[in-house]
Amino acid sequence: MLTCRTVWKKLAPLARASSTVCRQNVRRAGLTNGRIPAQTPAAHMSTGPTGGGGDNHLYVLLVGTVALGGGVYMYQTLKGDQKRYQARIDEIASRQQKPTTEDQATPIQSEPPAVEAADTEAVPQPEPQAAPSPEEPSPPAPDAEVVAPSETTEPPADEPVVEAPPEEAAEPPAAPVVEEEAEPSPPAEPCPAELTEPPPAPVVESEPTAAAESPAAEPAEPQPEVVAESGVDSTPASLKVPSHIPYLLIGGGTASFAAARSIRARDPGARVLIVTDEPDLPYMRPPLSKELWFSDDPSVTETLRFKQWNGKERSIYFQPGSFYITPEELNTAENGGVGVLTSKRVVHMDVRGNKVKLDDDTEISYDKCLIATGGVPRNLQVIERAGEEVMLKTTLFRKIEDFRSLDKVSRNIKSITIIGGGFLGSELACALGRRSNESGLEVIQMYPEKGNMGKVLPEYLSNWTTEKVKKEGVKIISEALVKSVICKDDKLEIQLKDGRLVKTDHIVAAVGLEPNVDLAKSAGLEVDSDFGGYRVNAELQARSNIWVAGDAACFYDIRLGRRRVEHHDHAVVSGRLAGENMTGANKPYWHQSMFWSDLGPDVGYEAIGIVDSSLPTVGVFAKATAKDTPKAATEKSGTGIRSESETEDTATSPVASSSPAPAMVEHKDDYGKGVIFYLRDKVVVGIILWNVFNRMPIARKIIKDGEEHADLNEVAKLFNIHED
């Protein structure tokens, strides 16, 4: 075409000149015909000098030559292009047929499929030369082959991607192999064998978003986790942490374990990874301040096994180590499983990218994530400002290591002071008070209220509880506000604001819990300004694909308003519901969680709803029997963790008996067992069952109904407190 264009440019002036001459001759001929008689011979126009006949012949010759030459050249060019194009198509078709047969025979290939994928993408590019064959790629082909699969041929989410071994990947023409199968099930069988080969290759692509669109189908296919290896890990040959996990649970406490168990129940093939900053597997926290302290086993701090009040022995761990699989096995386990990554902390959360960063810079992408980070124990500012020497003699009680540390300290000192009069402080005071009878340890408990659990119990019951704690060998200092703490002569001196001075060897600060919301800033999650914790909706969801459960969740209670609860039962139920919703249940959280506290094996209580001593209360009591103790209750239920034996069944058959008046007397026998109702606008919003066990479903129903009751003595009959 270029030659034709050049020739035409040269001939165009001549053609235009000939055309001009022709038009002039025609015009002259017309005028001459008008003047010359008809008998003039026509041949005179072509032979005479004024007719221009020689120029006409030249014009016709030039135009005809150009037209003929252009047509011949165009025909040859089109014919040649068609032949080359057909040869190219035939060659590509023959090569595509060959690897299809090879793919069916061999699931792992290295070079030929990569060349084919690149050549397939290169079809639209016209090349005058024939394309190289799969067996003998030309030198420039590898570069195009490496770029083409990564930019234009992304594998579907339900198809496996198998990487070549390192030695093959190191060769210039080698590239990750994309195998396209018509059926998704066959490649799932050879995949475990491929993954167990000693030299796995580094993975180059990550597609978490595609998997997030279909969470229900992910756990049944191990391939997506294999594909989604990011390049963050510097040692891909020995990966310890999967770079992608369908279900990521941040936190290793009760809520995370309950969620993992719920996820696996609804999705048996689910792959769940729990990341915890503690070195231990998921365990229950209540025994740390209860049963473990009453064990006769001197090695209880190592075994962490204890006898429940019913005499049965169990471990503090929810499940033994054999229940879990290692994080490395999550990608290869045929039926999925639950892995625990211990001693790792999530320090950053990318909500848009669906990934988190650990404290060792490892990145893990996820499809669904649960935040169950719990909380950290609060400390008094006067202690924090007192210096390192005082902090070394202070325990913030929360974890297994805190139990072990306090147990060791209490055996080697003469005096210990517990600051705090709530659940934890009172339980530890009673537990250490029992030990003081044997070792001579001085146990002091101080708090700003007038009596034990003064913020929860009505004053008369708080005073009764204080006397009970004193009989356990604990010295009580009430209405105590700490002004300063110093270390002097290897002793701690606690100066109170009213001038009292307390000397002790060690301090246990049990002054509450601060929800752990460290991820709120990086994740852009909302923190409640009144109650603390992450604000979640009725389904415990904070953002798309992110749920929160346990102590860190600030949820909306349809009956009692927005709340945040720090108890074992709430962690169990909220974790269970979050796990269900992570698998698509979309259930609202309406459960009224309960909590309990035991002051030794003889006195205990269970509570539900809002139990605040500032609210009006009505108490109905009866005389206790030998069956009305935590020990007897666990013997009947068969478990030391009462929330595990709870049911939603409500026993509503009252027992006919005389209706006692609300107890307002000071004799301890009158508080042997009973029911305390907490009222707000004449409606019951909280209930404490004092030495009354296995009646929580009834209390839950009363709060759920939200009705006014003219006579709470009649309501108390539903709990059968007058049975012998």
List keywords for this structure.
724 residues; alpha/beta; 8-stranded mixed β-sheet; 5-stranded parallel β-sheet; 21 helices; 30 strands; 33% helix
What does this entry look like structurally?
Residues 34-51, 98-239 and 639-668 have low confidence and may be disordered. Strands 3, 4, 7, 8, 9, 10, 22 and 23 form an 8-stranded mixed β-sheet that branches. The chain has a 5-stranded parallel β-sheet with strand order 12-19-13-14-15. The N and C termini lie far apart (112 Å). It is α/β, with parallel strands linked by helices.
Helix and strand layout, with pairings?
Blueprint: H1 2-35, H2 44-47, H3 53-105, H4 112-121, H5 141-152, E1 161-162, H6 166-169, E2 177-178, H7 191-195, H8 208-212, H9 223-227, E3 244-250, H10 254-266, E4 271-275, H11 300-303, E5 305-307, E6 313-315, E7 337-341, E8 346-350, E9 355-358, E10 363-371, E11 375-377, H12 381-384, H13 388-391, E12 394-396, H14 400-410, E13 415-419, H15 423-439, E14 442-446, H16 459-471, E15 474-477, E16 482-488, E17 491-496, E18 501-504, E19 506-509, E20 513-515, H17 520-523, E21 534-535, E22 541-543, E23 546-548, E24 553-557, E25 561-563, H18 568-582, E26 594-598, E27 604-609, E28 617-622, H19 630-637, E29 673-680, E30 683-690, H20 696-705, H21 712-716
Parallel strand pairs: 3-4, 3-10, 4-7, 10-23, 12-19, 13-14, 13-19, 14-15, 21-24
Antiparallel strand pairs: 1-2, 5-6, 8-9, 9-10, 11-20, 16-17, 17-18, 22-23, 24-25, 26-27, 27-30, 28-29, 29-30
Helix pairs in contact: 1-3, 3-4, 4-5, 10-18
